[in-house]
Design brief:
This protein has about 325 residues and is an alpha+beta fold. It has helices spanning about 10-20, 80-90, 120-125, 125-140, 150-165, 175-190, 230-240, 245-255, 260-285, 295-310, 315-320; strands at about 1-5, 30-35, 50-55, 60-70, 95-100, 105-110, 115-120, 195-200, 205-210, 215, 225.
Length: about 325
């Protein structure tokens, strides 16, 4: 770790500015260093922020500083992130947010400690762990709204418009992907849905596992008030390949299985793949970190989206809503 006043790149300059501006923090005892290396493929991990472990008064890491990368800063409401993280911390589900710096795009959290590690898909694919995560999401959904209504469909339109403004060329079948997504949105809107507070980003890397198996959520950039079946559908889609493995999670979530609810989850899963494919293209277009395989990740999400939308049973999912 290095003391304040020794920054050598723009990210460290931002980090030092955030730390120096934190009320009550003695700059003389602060040191910081890189906390997480980014990887866009095969997982999308630590690429939408630059993070630092922060020590104070000569002790080990006491805090975790997250700086949003510029290319996706317009997509994130930092005040909502900070407020929601605080609410989840109060529920015992997240590290405590300590300081918000909207000007520099930074949030300082308490450090979970070396006993915690990022979950992998294999960790969360067992039914007991997957069910535990569903129960965490259900508990969050019972809380007060976060004040950020959002749907994956509005998110897709936002990303599509931004990529068009950047002049980014879309895949050859993009019009079909967007048309099918519009159809999914239409049937879900017609059926109606509840909007509940959600972490809304159930990638396995956003779950930390403690030494006692405790699950803690991190990365709150997507927090919003959403249809709970969106989050459940995204979770199913990451953890499992087959419907037979996915359906028990719906029963955990609802207490009973229904074809209509499962169909909703699957429509959301296809839309979520499209959303993250587009979001990764924005990174690929704007990032200075050319070593990260954003295009590879985008192509994988496009592929999985096509596979589901092009499946002979997809029309039956539409009709089941």
């Amino acid at each position: 770790m290095k003391p304040l006043g020794t920054a050598t790149d723009p990210a460290e300059v931002r980090a030092e500015a955030v730390l120096s501006a934190m009320p009550g923090l003695d700059p003389a005892g602060v040191a910081y260093g890189p906390a997480a290396a980014g990887a866009a493929s095969p997982s999308f991990h630590a690429v939408e922020s630059t993070s630092f472990a922060v020590s104070m008064a000569g002790n080990g890491p006491a805090a975790f500083l997250k700086l949003t990368v510029p290319q996706i800063a317009p997509l994130i409401e930092l005040e909502t992130v900070f407020r929601a993280a605080g609410a989840l911390h109060d529920m015992g589900l997240a590290p405590k947010p300590l300081h918000l710096d909207t000007e520099r795009g930074g949030i300082l959290f308490t450090h979970l400690g070396a006993d915690y590690r990022s979950a992998r898909i294999d960790d969360l694919a067992t039914l007991d762990r997957a069910a535990a995560l569903v129960e965490i999401h259900r508990a969050i959904a019972q809380g007060a709204p976060f004040g950020r209504p959002w749907t994956v469909f509005s998110g897709i339109r936002q990303l599509k418009a931004r990529l068009a403004a950047l002049g980014r060329r879309m895949p050859a079948d993009a019009d079909w992907l967007f048309a099918v997504t519009d159809m999914s949105e239409a049937v879900i809107e017609a059926a109606g849905y509840d909007s509940r507070p959600a972490h809304a980003d159930p990638h396995s890397s956003n779950v930390m596992i403690g030494p006692d198996g405790r699950l803690v959520l991190v990365d709150f950039d997507m927090v919003a008030d959403v249809d709970p079946y969106y989050q459940l559908g995204a979770q199913m889609n990451e953890l499992y390949q087959f419907d037979s493995d996915m359906k028990p999670l719906l029963e955990v979530h609802d207490g009973v299985y229904s074809d209509a609810a499962f169909a909703r989850c699957r429509l959301y899963a296809a839309a979520d793949d499209l959303y993250w494919a587009l979001r990764s293209l924005i990174h690929e277009e704007l990032t200075s970190l050319k070593s990260l395989e954003f295009l590879k990740y985008a192509e994988w999400r496009f592929l999985r989206c096509r596979m589901l939308m092009g499946h002979p049973g997809f029309e039956a999912l539409i009709r089941a809503i």
